[in-house]
Amino acid sequence: MSHDMSENLPESHGSAGEVAEHGNPFADPGLPAHEPRRTDIDERAAKRAERQVSLMFVVSMLATIGFIASFVAIDPDKIVYIFPLGKVSALNFALGMTLGVALFMIGAGAVHWARTLMSDVEVPAERHPIEADDELRADIMEQFRQGAAESGFGRRKMIRNTLLGSLALVPLSGVVLLRDLGPLPEKKLMGTGWGKATQAMPLELVNMSTMQPMKAEDIVVGSLTFAMPKGLTTHDEDFQQRIAKDALMLVRIAPEDIKDDKSRELGFEGILAYSKICTHVGCPISLYEQQTHHALCPCHQSTFDLADGARVIFGPAGHPLPQLKIITDEKGNLVATGDFAEPVGPSYWERAR
Amino acid sequence: MSSASSTTSGAAKPASTRAKPASKWEAAADWTDGRLGIYSLAKANLRKIFPDHWSFMLGEICLYTFIIIIMTGVYLTLFFKPSMGEVIYDGSYVPLKGIGMSEAYASTVDISFEVRGGLLIRQIHHWAALVFVAGMLVHMMRVFFTGAFRKPREINWVFGFLLLVLGMFDGFFGYSLPDDLLSGTGIRFMEGAILAVPLVGTYVQMFLFGGEFPGHDIIPRFFTIHVLLIPGIMLGLLVAHLILVFYHKHTQWAGPGKTEKNVVGMPLMPVYMAKAGGFFFLVFGLIAAISAIASINPIWAYGPYRPDQVSTDAQPDWYMGFSEGLIRVMPGWEISVWGGHTLNLGVFIPLMVVFPLVLVSIAVYPFIESWITGDKREHHILDRPRNAPVRTALGAAWISLYLVLLIGGGNDLFATHLHLSLNAITYFVRVGFFVVPVVTFIVTKRWCLGLQRRDKEKVLHGRETGVIKRLPHGEFVEVHAQLPQKDLHTLTAHEQIQPVQLPAQTDENGVARKAGVLTRTRAKLSRGFYGEGSQIPKPTAEEHHEITSGHGHH
């Protein structure tokens, strides 16, 4: 070995088995003799194995024919009952099983062939160190030095420096090209669709299941209703972006049960309108426990106490759900008169805390 | 000049010393060799020796599932429309009729119900992806626990690590494409994670999504990443990985006739061509059969994505489960820094700090171990896990951490299926994150030492024969039989590294010399790895001789 060996490493490495110390019971006895298999010595066994391999290949052929037949013959909508799977698509089952058998049998045949009929004599092959020997190393180093000297890369500093400069600058074009991937954040994450509402021009809340305006008396204590701003429809071009921020979760809690004064004031007679978007990573919160007033996000289990200003009582969310101020208009419909006081959804760097 | 003279010399053919080919096959081979040089390539490889062990098949599973994924994936692109444009569903699946959805979702439903065999190919694609990542993880465990990552294979370990990470993320991008309610929730999760990055989070989010979440660009962009960018890189890495496997030759277990300087096994042609080629069909066939009977990702049941809707039991594919666990159990720490900026530690720490750490610890381990050991030699004989107790214990601790986080990621499922409190599971995982790996480390290390003692016992005293002998004075003893020499050799073939020593406190002139922090850390770690209490001294020939030649009653 060309390099120094650290003294902490055993010395026998690499030479194990080469020098069989006389009388050493642990010495390498060398490769054991090959033990013939039945198919090596019994021609009938070999014939049998040959037939078995061929049988597997034949089964594969039949399965492929079955695949084509299933594809042509079975109606894609047909549902069948297969124990213990239950009701499954007949076509998917037939295609998958025939394809599976066709492939598996080719593999099984090949492996059986290799194991029974091909030679299983183990032979050693020599390994060569990955490292080059010292002579080659010196030769290559010399060649490299010569190449480097001929290029003048080290000597002509001006060429070197300008080349490095141009190589460093040219990727900037690629970076600049990425600019139009999207707009700058600016204030986009700050506000929601409710920002259109003002004292003079309030915005009606619309029940998401009925798409009707909501009256305060229709919302009973203990209920949970989802709402969105009037004027938003599911076919709008930007519906997904809007609903990802505007979605509301309305609960009605007996006013005396509301622990947070500010929350009570933002609500209307105990009806509280919280953002439905979790402040953790933005899942919609949809599980509500009527008796405890707890709302739970099904994604990561952040739990908010809606009777206490949507304070986080469990889970990974970092701050309470924003609450939208609601009142009723002259028709008695619930309306908003402005946006949330803070951004909805997950927090981010520019968000003031 | 010479060419001119040869043309003028008449009809004589250019000289070739090669004999006339015996058959058309040989002629074709000669033709190819004249252009590609296949004979020299085949010289090293056609009868290349591969050692045989079941655990060497794990990497093959990864290779084959990767091929299956590419083939089925190409098929799926023929029908999938990576667009977020809205369409009204009018296909044969009645529950969705008349519902507005993205083209991506609608085309995935069509692949499942209108294209004959489309559902099967989708399911094969998804199942193969799960097996692919699982295969890579188990393959890496094999390589880790047997020490096959040691010199000269460290770079190939890093290639494998990159394949694992890329495979995980490509899986994530892939299952995000159908734009169903579940995968959309996954993308939202990613958006929240990006927003938690300080300074640039909102910019990255806007540029990635082309505006506010979800926008209309994310599915087409994920599509390009999923089918072109990542698979392209992976293909390159995979080829490099395989070339290195061939170049280094395979590792082998210690045994009679096996040394650091040879490789014992059977030749590539025919045995390994048949076995490995056949194994491809076995893997493909099994995955096809699984896809025939086990439904996976039934997106029609989830419905199209809407950011204000969600289902319970929202789970990522299993390989992303540990990141899900990290995010679920992290306390919601959110702090204000630099005058009114928000730092969302509750998301930032688990996903941008711990998640990369858990993964990168895999990549760097070979380099750390070789630094501690100071071992610069090539290793081709595998370690039995028991003979490297600290390494084995570290690997087991990593796995236990991974499993604890998987429990955290499925805390809702564990709660509902085992009737446990969700909060209790979460608290358990918070504590377990720190405690379970430590306990696992200790238990595994002691276990390995116990197995080493047993090996020593077997070498020195032989194996138990089960024969009970009654001695003349009435005592009963069990007869032990000496192990054959090949077993004695196999059990004692491993080397035992001794800890590196600190250089002497004073140099040869008696001047005090202080070891640096790094040197001292290294010596300390080396003692931890190989010192007393971290390995049982293996039996020596003298010990064996003394016991066997002495009063040999057992």
Summary?
The complex is a heterodimer of chains A (353) and B (554). By secondary structure, chain A is α+β, with helices and mostly antiparallel strands. Helix content of chain A is 32%, strand content 15%.
Q: What's the CATH H-level superfamily name of the domain at 193-336 in chain A? A: Rieske [2Fe-2S] iron-sulphur domain
Order of H and E elements of chain A: HHEEHEHHHEEHEHEEEEEEEE
Give me the Rg of chain A, rounded: 38 Å
Instruction: List how many beta strands of chain B DSSP finds.
Output: 8
Helix- and strand-based class of chain A? alpha+beta
The helix content of chain A, as a percent range, equals 25-40%
Main sheet specs of chain B? 2 strands, antiparallel
Transmembrane segments (chain B): 56-80, 126-145, 157-177, 189-210, 222-247, 279-300, 347-368, 388-407, 427-448
Organism (chain B): Streptomyces rubellomurinus (strain ATCC 31215)
GO molecular function (chain B): metal ion binding; oxidoreductase activity; quinol-cytochrome-c reductase activity
Region (Disordered) (chain B): 529-554
